[in-house]
Automatic annotation (TrEMBL):
Residues 1-291 form the Protein kinase domain. Residues 737-863 are annotated as: Disordered. It comes from the Eukaryota. The lineage of its organism: Eukaryota, Fungi, Dikarya, Basidiomycota, Agaricomycotina. One of its GO terms (cellular component) is cytoplasm. One of its GO terms (biological process) is tRNA export from nucleus. Residues 737-746, 797-810 have a biased composition (Polar residues). GO terms for molecular function: ATP binding; protein kinase activity. InterPro entries: ARM-like (IPR011989), ARM-type_fold (IPR016024), CIK-Related_Protein (IPR051177), Kinase-like_dom_sf (IPR011009), Prot_kinase_dom (IPR000719). Residues 829-856 have a biased composition (Basic and acidic residues). This is ARM repeat-containing protein. It comes from Obba rivulosa.
Length: 863
């Protein structure tokens, strides 16, 4: 048997070997601080449940203990029958003819506890001693009155400290009742070790049998007075009043005995047994506030108040409970550690679980007193009660649990969290009270390492997605922070699917701190993104925050962007310079200083110069030797092979300025005789009318109008709301064949898109009389409506009206109309510009009317 290896008594070994008995306990170490000639104290373990107990061993086989055997048997018999909260609790016993083993609750001797408390403050130590004296007075009152017996052995060695820190009365060796025929006190009182040192004066005079003539409390009252002297002055000898002629105690002999207790101390040591103060009267005097000298010594003690409040807690009303809990909180720091952990804490957890005062008031006290609980007992003493409270629908209880979660979260195991806490905790996400929702969100990070994969990557994220749409901005902000802290612990696929959308949603939140939290969360989870995700997902989603209306967001955005760019730069250094095959030549032979090379620019001006250098150097590149020997394609309409990545050709992509540039240069091209196709001099133009003059006029108008209109804005091309303007010209103008505008007489396409100042349209030649010489009029100029809207340059070029050549009718009309000098609008006031535009509008209307009349005359045959 295992207990034989730790058994310190040869008597027990012999007992087990001879009788074959099985002890209900396993003996541990011997308690050396317990000094008693009759008994030996052991720390032991109960076999049934492994709980800690104490075992008192008596072995009559030792010659020095044979005389104590009747007293030992009396102690076992009385301890079995006398039950009281302040009496040592009996649990089991094993008795033979010569040995006795009594198993009780785990205790330690009072003498060792007094030595420990001697190092503490005088006030704190005094309160503890008075509280203990109160408990012993209660126990003696019960023995003397309820049991009608005399203890007969009241001393420091007969008192023990339980696991709860409370004083327990033991030492029942001489406990006897005058009515009991087998009473040992009256016949064997002198056998008790040091009996005469603690005996009352009447016993010293007439012996122990004289006690039958007095009240049962007479001897115990005197011994209680000596006990008071011993616990307050542990190193001093017994007072002089203990020896004949028993003089009354003097003030100089008081020592550390409290002044309020000293009058009662003197009455307890009165030599006259009939005038002596009994334990019952001491208790009544101490609990009374108006009983005279020495009153209130117990009633004013904090520990006494706490014990009384705990015993009657469930019977008190709500106001009494609130007052008691406030007192408990104020004096909690001065409680003995074992008293707080084993006496106060169980009472509070019981009230917390089965009703009573508000959980929000009790739970903080539970956590405060739980700090003194040993780690191995924390789960059974505290956690088991807290876990049950999560099922409570009371919001105050839930809020108190979540507020104090940091104090016990690390002591929870994964199974408890998944099976018992999470099913109840998740209801807080959908609670109608915002405070509960926010506390639930903030609590998740403390329990995240104890959640399984299914909850973490599925159930929890669904709730957090809803929390990001919560009407409370603080909840949205804390949700974003929580996702950022959970990011590294999520699964790989979950990270890629959830993090960027979640943070992008936070970056668009109207609450400024939610946007800042989104940026910080992106920085905190940078390790969760690879380089491709940073460049294609993260940076595009967060770039808008760099122009946020709040400076706080902008500053954080630039710091975040700097971190991401640095990460991408580090990644770029590990990448190859190009992914193209080595045999593939650079397009157009890019020069080393071009933007396509390794040279970088650091400013907008430098970038513009580099772009210009790229175009010029590329076009000025020398032809290769093979190209020098080839011939150019004479087909003007042939198109160049274009890669799919090149922009589409056409008028839509041609800048507006190209029209003016080509118009200005066309005057030189038209001077060559015999030009064909796209030659602008196909129709002879009188020298009085110069194409350069028309180009200059249009350029002036364009410059003047450009000063008023922003063509790179986002407005419409024309003012569709200007209903008062004359739109008849656009409604009655003839439809022009697009093919005639985009083709040359040879059928070649117009590669430049200028379409000239004259048109080689065959229809015009057909309508022109042979005897007439075409004379150009002012060609229709582009119309720029005065509107604040700024169209795109591409749309402006596509929708603007292009100059065309004069028709024969226009040429005839031009013979009688002198060309007008172009008037520039530059430098005009707003009214002058409006008048000029009205004049041009009327002139255009007249030309359109003349064109219609000319066509009618051509269509009508001459008689």
């Amino acid at each position: 048997m295992d207990y034989l290896r730790t058994l310190g008594s040869a008597a027990v070994s012999s007992l087990v070997q001879k009788s074959g008995l099985t002890l209900p306990f396993s003996l541990g170490t011997k308690v050396t601080s317990f000094e008693n000639p009759s008994w030996t104290l052991y720390d032991a373990t109960k076999r049934d449940d492994g709980s800690q107990v104490s075992v008192f061993e008596f072995d009559a086989n030792t010659p020095a203990k044979k005389n104590y055997l009747p007293l030992a048997k009396n102690a076992l018999r009385k301890l079995r029958t006398v039950r009281h909260p302040d009496v040592l609790r009996f649990m089991d016993a094993v008795e033979t003819d010569t040995t006795i083993h009594i198993m009780t609750e785990r205790v330690r001797p009072l003498a060792s506890a007094i030595s420990t408390w001697s190092a503490k403050g005088a006030q704190e130590r005094e309160e503890w001693l008075i509280w203990g004296l109160h408990r012993i007075s209660v126990a003696l009152t019960f023995v003397n009155d309820s049991c009608a017996s005399t203890h007969g052995n009241v001393r420091v060695g007969s008192i023990f400290i339980s696991a709860t820190g409370e004083w327990k009365l033991g030492g029942f060796d001489a406990l006897s009742s005058p009515k009991d025929d087998a009473a040992v006190l009256y016949t064997l009182g002198s056998v008790i070790p040091d009996a005469m040192s603690y005996a009352s004066p009447e016993v010293k005079n007439k012996g122990w049998s004289v006690l039958k003539e007095h009240e049962p409390a007479v001897a115990d009252s005197y011994a209680l007075g000596l006990l008071i002297h011993c616990i307050f002055n542990p190193s001093a000898p017994l007072p002089a009043t203990a020896q004949p002629p028993h003089p009354p105690p003097t003030a100089s002999s008081r020592g550390a005995i409290p002044i309020a207790l000293f009058p009662s101390f003197k009455k307890l040591l009165n030599p006259n047994p009939k005038a002596r103060l009994t334990p019952k009267h001491l208790l009544e005097l101490g609990m009374s506030q108006t009983a005279g000298e020495g009153s209130g010594v117990f009633a004013n003690n904090r520990l006494v108040k706490i014990c009384s409040g705990l015993d009657n807690f469930n019977l008190g009303n709500e106001s009494e409970k609130v007052v008691f809990l406030r007192t408990l909180k104020e004096s909690a720091s001065s409680f003995p550690q074992e008293f707080a952990a084993q006496r106060v804490l169980p009472s509070l957890t019981s009230a917390l679980e089965f009703g009573g005062a508000s959980a929000a008031t009790i739970l903080p006290l539970v956590m405060q007193f739980g700090k003194g609980v040993p780690p191995e007992d924390y789960s059974s003493a505290i956690l088991v009660h807290l876990v049950k409270l999560y099922a409570s629908p009371d919001r105050g209880t839930r809020m108190a649990l979540l507020d104090h979660l940091p104090e016990y979260a690390d002591k929870l195991d994964k199974k408890t969290v998944v099976d018992k806490i999470w099913p109840n905790l998740q209801t807080g996400f959908s609670d109608t009270v915002a405070l509960i929702r926010e506390a639930t969100v903030r609590s998740i990070i403390l329990l995240s390492d104890k959640l399984n994969e299914r909850i973490l990557n599925n159930d929890l994220l669904r709730y957090l997605a809803k929390m990001q749409a919560d009407p409370e901005p603080s909840i949205r902000t804390n949700t974003c922070i929580l996702i950022g802290r959970l990011g590294p612990s999520l699964g790989y696929n979950t990270k890629r699917k959830v993090l960027v959308p979640a943070f992008a949603r936070a970056l668009k939140d109207p609450f400024v701190h939610a946007r800042v939290a989104g940026l910080m969360a992106l920085m905190a989870t940078i390790e969760c993104f690879d380089a491709e995700d940073l460049a294609s997902k993260v940076i595009p989603n967060m770039s808008s925050t760099m122009v946020d209306t709040e400076k706080l967001v902008r500053d954080q955005a630039f710091k975040t962007m700097e971190l991401f760019i640095k990460r991408l730069e580090e990644h770029a250094t590990t990448m190859p310079e190009t992914a193209a095959p080595e045999t593939e030549a650079l397009p157009l032979g890019l020069p080393p200083s071009s933007p396509g090379s390794n040279a970088l620019v650091n400013s907008a001006a430098g970038a513009a110069s580099a772009l210009a250098g790229w175009a010029i150097s590329s076009l000025g590149k020398k032809l290769a030797a093979a190209d020098l020997q080839s011939t150019m394609d004479t087909n003007v309409g042939a198109e160049i092979d274009r890669p799919t990545s090149a922009p589409a050709s056409g008028d839509a992509l041609r800048p507006l300025a190209s029209t003016f540039a080509s118009a200005a240069s066309s005057s030189h091209l038209g001077a060559k005789p015999g030009a064909k196709g796209m030659q602008l001099g196909a129709h002879k133009v009188p020298a009085s009318v110069s194409a350069a003059a028309l180009a200059a006029e249009w350029a002036d108008e364009a410059v003047a109008d450009a000063a008023q209109i922003n063509y790179w804005g986002s407005d419409d091309l024309m003012d569709v709301n200007a209903d008062q303007d004359d739109w008849s010209a656009f409604e009655t103008a003839p439809v022009i064949n697009s093919s005639s505008l985009s083709s040359t007489p040879n059928g070649a396409k117009d590669l430049w898109g200028d379409r000239g100042f004259t048109s080689p349209d065959p229809a015009d030649d057909f309508l022109k009389p042979a005897s007439k010489v075409s004379k150009p009029l002012h060609s229709p100029r582009p119309v720029y409506l005065n509107t604040p809207r700024s169209p795109s340059p591409l749309i402006a070029n596509r929708n603007s009206r292009q100059p065309r050549s004069a028709t024969p009718s226009e040429s005839d009309a031009g013979e009688h109309t002198a060309p007008q000098k172009a008037v520039s609008t530059a430098g005009m006031t707003k009214e002058e510009k409006a008048a000029e535009m009205a004049r041009r509008k009327e002139e255009r209307r007249q030309r359109i009317a003349a064109l219609k009349e000319a066509k009618k005359s051509v269509a009508t045959p001459a008689p």
